[in-house]
Amino acid sequence: MNGSSCQSLVMLSQPQPKKMDKLMLLLFVITSLLSEAFTQTDLSGKVMVFPKESSSDHVKLIAQQEKPLQNFTLCFRAYSDLSRAYSLFSYSTKDKDNELLVFKERIGEYSISIGGKGTSFKVAEMFPSPVHLCVSWESSTGIVEVWVNGKPLVKKGLRQGYAIEANGSIVLGQEQDDFEGGFDKSQSFVGEIGDLYMWDSVMSPEDILFAYQGSTINPDSPNILNWETLHYEAKGYVVIKPLVWA
């Protein structure tokens, strides 16, 4: 083999600069898109701000839930000056749009829906003011408990013996009237949400008080949703800001 042939083989075996540049750019774009789509981060001391009424802006939460739920506790903080109805937490499946829904009907009234059936809870509250809300449910008795700012409301019964389906869609900022969609501007949330945790068990009154007081939560304890290791996808006008009102 002569020298020119060897040189040609060497040149062919070396990466072409333009092709390598395009490949690197493509990898960078894919990595960036994946990073933006599914972010895992510690949101301690921060809130998600939904600045305006919308029929599209929302956050999708990625839950660590692989089997149907027969018990749960959900806690979070919210601050809004809306006087109309709005969704606080929407979990839908392909079979039911209101598999689990936490909804503010009006000032002083919340509703909880499980498996498409709902019940309401009345509370005396100042408006507008921040709220820490906890909701728990156990399938064996059907008892739903709602705690507002560390105080329990009257217990109600809902869906005794039911199991909440797994692999659904969790959305903040909108109510899902269809799986992952069907948003209605008039039910959208405008305000701030933070410190959101969810367990696959009914938490004790002491633990709920600890959550309300902002006490440190065992990082491994909230095994469905954890604000300190949250997987989420923000779509539209949603901003992360420091929590300044709790």
What can you see in these coordinates?
The protein is α+β, with helices and mostly antiparallel strands and 246 residues long. The chain contains 3 helices and 17 strands. The chain has helices at 3-13, 17-37, 205-212; strands spanning 39-41, 46-50, 58-61, 71-79, 86-92, 100-106, 109-114, 117-122, 131-138, 143-148, 151-152, 156-157, 169-172, 191-199, 225-226, 230-235, 239-242. The strands form 2 sheets. Strands 2, 4, 9, 10, 11, 12, 14, 15 and 17 form a 9-stranded antiparallel β-sheet that branches. The chain has an 8-stranded antiparallel β-sheet with strand order 1-16-3-13-5-6-7-8. Strand 10 (143-148) and strand 11 form a beta hairpin. The radius of gyration is 23 Å and the shape is globular.
Produce the secondary structure layout.
Layout: H1 3-13, H2 17-37, E1 39-41, E2 46-50, E3 58-61, E4 71-79, E5 86-92, E6 100-106, E7 109-114, E8 117-122, E9 131-138, E10 143-148, E11 151-152, E12 156-157, E13 169-172, E14 191-199, H3 205-212, E15 225-226, E16 230-235, E17 239-242
Antiparallel strand pairs: 1-16, 2-14, 2-17, 3-13, 3-16, 4-9, 4-14, 5-6, 5-13, 6-7, 7-8, 9-10, 10-11, 10-12, 14-15
Low-confidence stretches: 5-15, 28-36
User: Rough shape?
Assistant: globular
Helix content: 10-25%
Computed Rg? 23 Å
Proportion of β residues?
Answer: 35-45%
Give average pLDDT, whole number.
Answer: 88
Number of strands: 17
> Biggest sheet, in brief?
9 strands, antiparallel
Span of the ends, CA to CA:
78 Å
> What is the helix tally?
3
Q: Give the topology string: H per helix, E per strand.
A: HHEEEEEEEEEEEEEEHEEE
Class by SSE composition? alpha+beta
